[in-house]
Amino acid sequence: MEHKVSKELDYTPLLVAEPEYEYTRLYPQSGTTSTTVYSGGNDTVFEIPPSKAFNLSRSHFRFNFTIPGIADKSQMVFADFCPFFRQVQVYTRGGLYLMDHTNFHLHSKMVTARNKPLVETENTFNTFVQGEEQSMIPCLSSKLPRSYDPGFVFNPNSGEEAIVPYVETKYFAAGDAANAQLLLNVTIPFSEMYEWILCVDKDIMLNETLLIRFVWSELSNIAFSANPPPAKPANSPSTLMISSPDPTQGAAAIPAPANGTFNITDMAIYLAVEKNLAIVNELQSRIVSPDGFSLMIPYCYNNITSLIGNTSLMQYDYYPGQYDDYLALRWILKDSSILNPRVSRRNWCWIEEFGDGTSNFNKDNMITGIDLNLGEQKWDFNAFLSEATNLTHNTTIVCKRKLVITPNGLALV
Predict the structure, then answer these.
(1) C-alpha 386: how far from chain center
(2) Which of 91, 227, 253, 394 has its CA 20 to 30 A from that of 311?
(3) Which helix (H) or strand (E) holds 47?
């Protein structure tokens, strides 16, 4: 039998080594902090020098996104995930790819709300519900119920929105009037770019230059326009907020930016650099040790080949109309930003954990699921739609690989 002492009776001093970060601002490799996003495919590359210890998860990418005013339309930007990039690559100057994620915007739509804890969504901000200038982090809480909801709570003294949020994620950042420019100050925390190396909350130190390449999405996958919201009813109180635009009314593409204009500006990565010299020295000593310094990182695959195998993972068919799928995933979704079956249905995605996914171990260190060292595996997803629907499908396989750092360079096992 193991004997433990409660915290009220435990007086043992505990010396804890904690990180201490300061932010270093990195600018694109090209030297310009602006680009134009329309057809997609243009890229922005950042370099992280090998001379410092840093934590990618505590770092973030920040930029301004501008959509000019459109006659008789309001702008609508997807806000519940990161729609801005269709591919993200992380690789060394020597050509070792630690991440090469195509269809990243689709992956982000699948995993963001499911991985982001509800408490973080509630604390994720948008400076204004809607308006000409907004600051936002993707997957933020929606603080404005639809339309002129009589239950909407506001401060009667100032007319400002309620502090207590309406917690379902906000699906769009919207302009509040036709013909008005929309400026979004976007911050993308690397900790919320889930299932890849940038979200690993670990101090690391490399002996090679690390490059991060963002390939921008088509503008049509980032934003569109819709009919503006109706005017306030006559004789309405000044504290009554205007309604949001309805994205199903008059949806249309955003026009191409004028020649010579940039709609992405002020790009920079804010890199969390380790200041604690004891931690930096410890990392250096691990790298020069006989075994080198190693850590586990998530690694995603999108291109899947056909394999042989016919073992069913389900004993019966799941019917979403009866919420069979939600009940099967409920323990995985607990404490996430997927609040209930209805929200899950609006953001439908199937997760195959190959384990129950509820252990309380450090997720960055944990190795679970199927051991691919024993051979390749086949996984099929079979589903039937109740009616013909034009949908985009995407499958991502998330694995764990070991990154080994030695004086001779990096290796991915």
Answers:
(1) 30
(2) 394
(3) strand 43-48
Q: What is the token pair recorded at 11? A: 């007086």
- Rounded to two decimals, the pTM is 0.87
Question: Could you tell me if 274 and 27 are in contact, meaning their C-beta atoms sit under 8 angstroms apart?
Answer: no
pLDDT at 356: 63
82, 194 Cβ separation under 8 angstroms: no
Task: Please tell me the distance from the alpha carbon of residue 205 to that of residue 279, in angstroms, as a whole number.
Answer: 10
Q: How far apart are CA 86 and CA 106, in angstroms?
A: 8
Of 71, 73, 391, give the one whose Cα is nearest residue 250: 73
Kindly report, residue by residue over 278-334, the tens digit of the pLDDT.
999 999 999 999 889 999 999 988 754 444 455 556 667 888 888 888 998 888 898
Residue range 364-376: mean pLDDT, rounded: 78
Angle at 408 between CA 402 and CA 412, to 5 degrees: 20
Tokens 């790819």, located at residue: 97
Of the candidates 207, 267, 238, 209, which has an alpha carbon nearest to the alpha carbon of residue 37? 267
CA 393 to chain centre: 18
Token representation of residue 168: 């379902």
pLDDT at 151 over 50: no
Summarize pLDDT for 50-103 with one digit per residue, the tens: 889 999 999 999 999 999 888 888 888 999 999 999 999 999 998 999 999 888
Neighbours of 270 (CB within 10 A): 17
Phi, then psi, of 341 in degrees rounded to 5: -60, -35
Say how far apart CA 238 and CA 127 lie, in whole Å: 20
Q: How far apart are CA 3 and CA 409, in angstroms?
A: 45
Report, in this order, helix, strand and coil percent for the chain, each rounded to 5: 15, 30, 55
Instruction: With H, G, I as helix, E, B as strand and everything else as coil, classify residue 210.
Output: strand
Which element (helix H / strand E) includes 281? helix 277-287
Query: Cα–Cα distance between 381 and 192 in angstroms, integer?
Result: 26
Task: Determine contact, residues 309/378, Cβ cutoff 8 Å.
Answer: yes
Q: Which residues pair with 67 in a beta bridge?
A: 182
Buried b (16+ CB within 10 A) or exposed e, 33-43: bbbbbbebeeb
Alpha-helical segments (H) within 299-374? 324-333, 341-346
| In contact, 407 and 207? CB cutoff 8 Å | yes
At position 300, the amino acid (one-letter code) is: C
* Domains observed in the chain: 15-291 (3.90.249)
Nearest to 250 by CA among 225, 233, 275: 225
Name the amino acid, one letter, at 195: E
